[in-house]
Amino acid sequence: MNFDKDRYFLEMALREAEKALIENTYPIGAVIVDENNNLIAKGRNRVHTQQDTTAHAEVDAIRNAGHAIFNAKVKGEKFTIYSTLEPCPMCTGAILFAKIKRVVWLLNDDLGFGGYKKIKDSNVFEKKFKEIELIEEPFLDLKTKQKELMSKWEDNENYILNLRKSVK
User: Fold this and answer.
1) What's the distance, Cα to Cα, between the start and end of the chain in Å?
2) pLDDT for 52-66, tens place per residue?
3) pTM of the predicted model, to two decimals?
4) Counting C-beta atoms within 10 Å of the first and last residue's C-beta, which end of the chain has fewer, N or C?
C-alpha cells in the first residue's frame, strides 16, 4: 500500500463529496486511477441533482472513466477506485463488472446501505472478490471528515427523513 498516493486520492474523493453536499445531495465522492497512479476519472453522488437513483459516486466515476474501463478489462490493467464511503450493493456490482482490482474507502457503512463487505462475505462472487484488494478506513482524520459530511447531510432538506417530513 502506498500511503501517500492513497491519501492523495482519498482527499480528492473527499473534495468530490464536499461538492455533492454543496449540490444538496449525498456527500460521497469517488476517484479511479490506473496502476501508474494516473487519474482516470472522478465522480460524486448526483442522485438529487440528476433525479437519478443510480447516480451514485462510484457509478458516476465508472461512467466518467468511459473507454478506459473497457481497455483495462481487455488488457488486464489494474484500476483502483477510491470512495469516501463503503460502496452499496449496486456500486459493488458496478465495481465487479468494471473489473476494478483495488477498492479503498474512508468510512464503513455497516448501518446504512454499505454492501461491499456483505456481498463479499456471502461468497456469491468469491472468485471475483479474490482478485480485488480491499483497504477500508486507512486514515482516521479523513474518516472523521467524511463522518462530518454525513452528519451535515442529515440536516439537508433532501435527506430522506427530512423529505418524508415535508410530505406529511
Assistant:
1) 49
2) 999 999 999 999 999
3) 0.94
4) C
Instruction: Give the closest residue to 158 by CA, choosing from 11, 85, 50.
Output: 50
- Please give the positions annotated as active site: 58
Q: What is the pLDDT of residues 118-152, one digit of tens each?
A: 999 998 899 999 999 999 999 999 999 999 999 99
Percent of the chain with pLDDT over 90: 83
Q: Which residues pair with 44 in a beta bridge?
A: 29
* CATH no. of 3-152: 3.40.140.10
Complete DSSP assignment for 41-105:
EEEE--HHHHT-TT--HHHHHHHHHTHHHHHHHHHT---EEEESS---HHHHHHHHHHT--EEEE
pLDDT, averaged across the chain: 94
Q: Please count the residues of the chain.
A: 168
5: helix, strand or coil: helix
Q: Kindly list the distances between the CA atom of residue 54 and the CA atoms of 17, 43, 48, 58, 128, in Å, as whole numbers in the listed order.
A: 16, 13, 10, 10, 22
| 3-state secondary structure (DSSP) of residue 133 | strand
Q: How far, in Å, CA of 34 to CA of 55, rounded?
A: 22
